[in-house]
Amino acid sequence: MNRKYTVLDLLIGAMEKLSPKTGERQNVLAFIQSCYGGQVRYYDLDRAVVSLFKLTPEEQHCVITWTLQEKELASQLKTPAAAA
Hints:
Layout: H1 7-17, H2 24-35, H3 45-52, H4 57-78
Helix pairs in contact: 1-4, 2-3
């Protein structure tokens, strides 16, 4: 059966493949935040690459996009709105 996945389906599926108990999920997110988001984070590059290969290209894209948008949203919430 060919099913179209929603962005949320892809994100949840990707996160389920990355173990939070072993630190795998946190390592991948730190890698994304550092390499794509420009934040200084500590991570194990070799482990992050191996972990990312567990994900489909669509899941990788979804996790990267979500991580970067989450950072941008958090920074917008901290910035006071411009006075009119």
